[in-house]
Amino acid sequence: MCWAEPQSRREFSSIVVGGGPGGLGPLLWAAQHGLLESWLEQGVALVERTGRLGGTLGCYGINSDSLGGSYLECLEAKGWPAALQHLRRNPVTLEMRRYRTSYPPLPLVNQYMGCVGQAVADMFGGHSSSALHLHTTAQSVHLCDDGRVAVVVHGQDGRAKTLVARSAVVALGGRQHWRDEMAAPGLKFVDCAARQLLSSNEFLTHDGLARADEIIRDAAGRSIVIVGGAHSAYAAAWALLQLPAARSLKDGQIVILQRRPPRIFYPDRAAAVADDYPFEEGDICVRTQRVNRMGGIRGHGRDIWRQIAHKPNVPPESRVAVRAIQDFSAAQLRTVLEEAALVIPCLGYRSATMPIFDSAGQRLTLKADINGDAVDGDCRLLTADGRPLPNVFGIGLGSGFRPTQAMGCEPNFRGQANSLWMYQNDIGAVIYREIQVLADEKLTAAVAA
Ligand SMILES: Cc1cc2nc3c(=O)[nH]c(=O)nc-3n(C[C@H](O)[C@H](O)[C@H](O)COP(=O)(O)OP(=O)(O)OC[C@H]3O[C@@H](n4cnc5c(N)ncnc54)[C@H](O)[C@@H]3O)c2cc1C
């Protein structure tokens, strides 16, 4: 059985839900390898809730932690289709080129991704077997017993449509999950009577930064507490220090509470040694020899870490104090959080999900809804008991894909690969190939019949 109303149903080879950097990833991998035209010829449906492709990075008021060059690399690929070559001369691309070896502002990255998305959208127009559904929200995914998958969508006219395909890619972006996290044994953030709480995702937006500036102005010596010790925590510390009101902060008034010291990115061993940074063999990426290539903090978060840690050739930063969270009892921690002027939980992302039903109509519980990593090594979405769904894939912020060492990852890496470059390269490649295997199975079955 397949849940679909026949009168409003259209068939494709694959359906991509979400037109951000994650959803665009497999399409841009295919474009770089000269395979996008043929994939669109097979039939791709791309469903995006807003009126544009490109994603949500524009809402953040900070700089990228990837070099500008990493976003431009795809344009130079050998197989890059003629229909997308105009992007090389696009004014936004030219602006991005100024940041080839530095960190572009995220709103500019977002503008650039919007141009890339628009060019991909235009390509859909040339392939009648494919369809782009903007202003369309995907509501649910239904596994069919004939091995296909149906996605129910609602367009601007409010009418439901069912798209059917051999495979679907779910790329809805991330969500934060700090409310129910334990700040300390017996103490959930949500139960903490902190004066002001802004999750890192809220804080790093343009509105969040303006709000934090007001809070600091009225802080009168009370602390600003950042909880977490990874990318978002150090990006938040850097962003706080750029606010006009931060000039009045006293020594140690910003406190980073972390479980363990962050890992820091270095381009090679020599750079880490020169910085007196302790690393072990397992921190070295086997493919590139970079230190903490996947898990290391980069960009302005890394800059501020170096200042806090009094590293060479940077002015020391004394307004930020770093403390180990386990040095506090639950009662002490409650006091610290409740007396702070502002608490910023920076506890990472999980992938956003949507209801997925099996062929008997039962809603499946997904691993992403329970405790984290949404996908397996083939990017297949996992159910709560760890079973991969045969033809539904996940990509994007919080999806928890673990890169292999062959992809260029340090053996000690345990985190998530949340990187546009990875979506357009290794992760996009995994999904494209798996989708093609499924499409070939369908073809073989049709020939046999
Ligand atoms: C503050 C911050 C800074 C980051 N900086 C970098 C960086 O410098 N470099 C880097 O490589 N990565 C960075 N990342 C990580 C990651 O690459 C980005 O978050 C990226 O935007 C993730 O892309 P995405 O497609 O998963 O999510 P999004 O960009 O959020 O895109 C998801 C898309 O899905 C759509 N959508 C959602 N639900 C539905 C639905 N039901 N139906 C249809 N469409 C839907 C949304 O409208 C949106 O367009 C950063 C992340 C954060 C949070």
Summarize the structure.
With 449 residues, the chain is α/β, with parallel strands linked by helices. The protein has helices spanning 21-32, 36-42, 68-72, 91-97, 106-125, 200-203, 206-217, 231-242, 269-274, 299-308, 330-339, 367-370, 420-424, 426-448, and strands at residues 9-11, 14-17, 44-47, 131-133, 137-143, 149-154, 160-165, 167-170, 174-175, 182-184, 187-188, 224-227, 254-258, 320-324, 342-345, 350-351, 356-357, 380-382, 388-394.
The average pLDDT is 93
**What is the CATH class designation of the largest domain?**
Alpha Beta
Would you identify the regions where 5 or more consecutive residues have pLDDT less than 50?
Answer: none
The major pleated sheet works out as: 6 strands, mixed
Domain count: 2
Topology, number of strands = 19
Protein described:
By secondary structure, the chain is an alpha/beta fold. It has 2 domains: 6-174 and 350-448, FAD/NAD(P)-binding domain (3-Layer(bba) Sandwich); 182-262 and 297-345, FAD/NAD(P)-binding domain (3-Layer(bba) Sandwich), CATH 3.50.50. 31% of the residues lie in helices and 17% in strands. It has helices at 21-32, 36-42, 68-72, 91-97, 106-125, 200-203, 206-217, 231-242, 269-274, 299-308, 330-339, 367-370, 420-424, 426-448, and strands spanning 9-11, 14-17, 44-47, 131-133, 137-143, 149-154, 160-165, 167-170, 174-175, 182-184, 187-188, 224-227, 254-258, 320-324, 342-345, 350-351, 356-357, 380-382, 388-394. Strand 5 and strand 6 (149-154) form a beta hairpin. Helix 1 crosses helix 14, helix 4 packs antiparallel against helix 5 (106-125) and helix 8 crosses helix 10. The radius of gyration is 23 Å and the shape is globular. The mean pLDDT is 93. Flavin-adenine dinucleotide binds next to helix 1, strand 5 and helix 13. The site of flavin-adenine dinucleotide (FAD) has 31 residues, from helix 1, strand 5 and helix 13.
